[in-house]
Amino acid sequence: MERKTVTQTTNPLETLQKLTKVKIARLGEEVVERVFPVGTTVKDALEAAGITPRKDEEIRLDGKPADLNAPIQEDEVIVTLVPRIEGGK
Amino acid sequence: MLDFWRQLDILSPEDLKDLRVTVIGCGGIGSPTVLALAKMGVPNLIVYDDDSIEPHNLPNQFYRITDLGKKKVEALGEIVEEYAGLKIEKRPERFKGQHPLSGVVISGVDTMGSRKEIWKHIKYKPGIPLYIDARMGGEVARIYSINPCDPDDIEFYESMLYDDAEATELRCTARAIIYNVFIIAGLIANQVKKFARAEKVVREIIFDLKTLTFTVDKERR
What we know:
The complex is a heterodimer of chains A (89) and B (221).
Chain A: H1 12-16, E1 19-26, E2 30-37, H2 42-48, E3 57-61, E4 64-65, E5 77-83
Parallel strand pairs in A: 1-5
Antiparallel strand pairs in A: 1-2, 3-4, 3-5
Chain B: H1 13-16, E1 20-24, H2 30-40, E2 44-48, H3 72-84, E3 89-91, E4 104-107, H4 112-120, E5 131-137, E6 140-146, H5 151-159, H6 178-196, E7 204-208, E8 213-216
Parallel strand pairs in B: 1-2, 1-4, 2-3, 4-5
Antiparallel strand pairs in B: 5-6, 6-7, 7-8
C-alpha cells in the first residue's frame, strides 16, 4: 500500500517577516496588546489598534520620544501615549 | 532628632549634611515631598507657596483637618516639625525669582506657565546642580530630573515645556488622588537620594496607575 508523506508546514507570514508583540498604553485610559511585523510604523500600529492620538498626547516608543513614522523594532515594545499633564495641587 | 539607623546603608546624614533643597509649590506634589525629604534627613528645606488650605485640598494633600484656612507653608512647617523634628524655612509667597535659588530645586506647581517662569531662574545656574519638575494629572505623573547646566538636559527638558494651551484639560473631579501623590513624593525623594549619593538620576519618569504602566528615559546621567 502506498504511504502518504506528511510534511510540516509553517505560517508563510512567519517565514517572510518577523513578528513582535506590541503593548500600546494610552496612559490614564487603557492598554492593548497586538502583534505586528517588525518595521510597522507607530501610526499603522495605532490605527490597527483603533487608537487615534489626541493633540494633547505625546508618543513614546520604549520610553523614548518618537513620531508617528517611527518603525517598531523587535522585543518588548511599548508604545505609550502620554498626556500633557500640568497639575501639582 | 531622628535616628537614621534603619537607612544608614541606603542614605546617611553624612550624605545629606550640606544639602539644601527648595520646594516650590506645597500642594499635592509638594506637601508629601517635603515631609519625605525631612524624614529622609534633608537638613535644609525652603518652601514656597502663597496658597491657603481649602476643604478640597484635604483628600490629596498632606494637611490636617485642623489646618483649614492656614497658609500651606505654615501648616507644613508645623507638620514637618512634629513628624521629623525639623524647622523648615517658610516663604508664604509665589516664587517669581525674588530670591536667588541654590542647591536642589523641586517644582510642584500647577501650570506650565508657572514652570516656565521658574525655569527662567534655573537655566544655566551653576549653583543648582539638580532641578526636579513633577507634574500630575489623575493617576498619571511625569517627573523630570535634570542638570540645568547640561546642554542635552536643557534641550530635552525644554522640549517637554509645552504651553498651558497644549496641556491636557482634566475635569475638576479627575485631577488628583492621594496614592498618586505619595508615589510621586517617593520617586522625587529617591532622585534626591541618588543625587546625594552621586548615583545616576533618571531624566524622565512617567507612570500611570490606571494601566500600571511605568517608563523611564534610558539615557541616564
